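Can anyone check this?
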Amino acid sequence: MDETATIATGAAPDGEDGSRPTTLLPASHLLRISAYWLGLTAIDSAVNIVVQNRINFDRTLMRDELMIGTTTALVGLAGAILSILIQPTVGYISDFAVTRWGRRKPFIVVGSLLDVLFLLGIAYSNTLLALAAFVALLSVSTNIARGPFQGYVPDLVAEKQVGLASALVGMMQIVGNVTGVLLATFAVQAGNLPIALIAVAVVELVTMASVVLRVGNGLPPRPREGRSWARIARETWATDILQEHSYLWLLASRFLFLTAGGILFNLAVQYLSQVHGLPQDEAAGAQRTMSILIVIAIVIVSVPAGRLSDRFGRKPVIYVSCAIGAVAMLLGALAPNLAVAYLAALLYGIGGGVFIAVDWALMTDIIPRASSGRYMGLSNVATGASSPVSVAVGGIIADIVNRAAGMGVGMRVSLLVALGLYVLAAVALRPVVEPRRGRAARRDAAVVG
């Protein structure tokens, strides 16, 4: 057995005891794993910006300016529904998959290759219907990869590395978002939107190959015990999950937090054009500046946030991130100029970087390890749904208020709604019972024994 496989399978042989792997992964493997998130989230943000720019500025597709937000929401609706259904289902199926590449990797490869095909479809769509159809198909393919990959990470990471791995995962997710933004905004200013989607397809393929070829297979599959694949797929949605109260409250908190931030991030083009009156090329430049500020903030805070959560607990750090996010939305809503909007983006990056770094760690702390594909896939229902819901909530509110109070007022009100969602995210986190870790957990176990 090669070294990578040995390192990756340090847990109990059958993976059924809920334990983590015990052997530490090399730093290079942690980086490779987290880098695939960069590839996946770069796709999300690039597609989001391409769709926003087509709907906001391409009058051959969109003629009614007072329906921009609603149309943007409708284009992503089918993709959101498919994401909710596919990711946890395929993730759970992968818990039982028996292949020479392990239980996760084949899904990651197939999903990534299909992503390339559907990205090309989005790049060259000439009608709203075609654009919406390829966005939906991309949701199918990308979630075939995401569901199993969500479970792959807990398969590999030892307890001592959870804080660091969580920080790297969170950082790469946001850096991936910003990478997609940078590629897309340069493409907007160059007048060549398809090149951005081709570029993110290449990024995903490179990061996928780095994981599949160089990182071990993880835990062995769970036994099917004669069950059909259809039955296993149905079991993904079995009601036993309702007994995991902390898990469900954490899903609610994650959904509310990401929806709040998504109102600014996913509707940045609409915010900059309507609130600050920027034309398309200037809006692209301003969005790029905001993205650079976001990534700087994330690079600075992600690893320290993960380390702090190891020491002081996950929940206190997440509460801080909710407070920072709420302040960011308030500044964005009241911003009289771009300088204040940039400050809001910087705070958004700090809050988002802290949250994503620590939230993932808390999620892996509380899920049943043997079914990590199922539980991590279901957790990404909150992640996947938050983006289209943020577009729907923010966009529709903006359209309604713009009609009543004038263009630009609507997006300011949408950001105030986002502030309220951050508050609700903190409230939803309160019932979550955070497990004790490290010395404290071992001491408790010794007392019980």
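Reply from J.R.: I decoded it. DSSP finds 17 helices and no strands in the chain.
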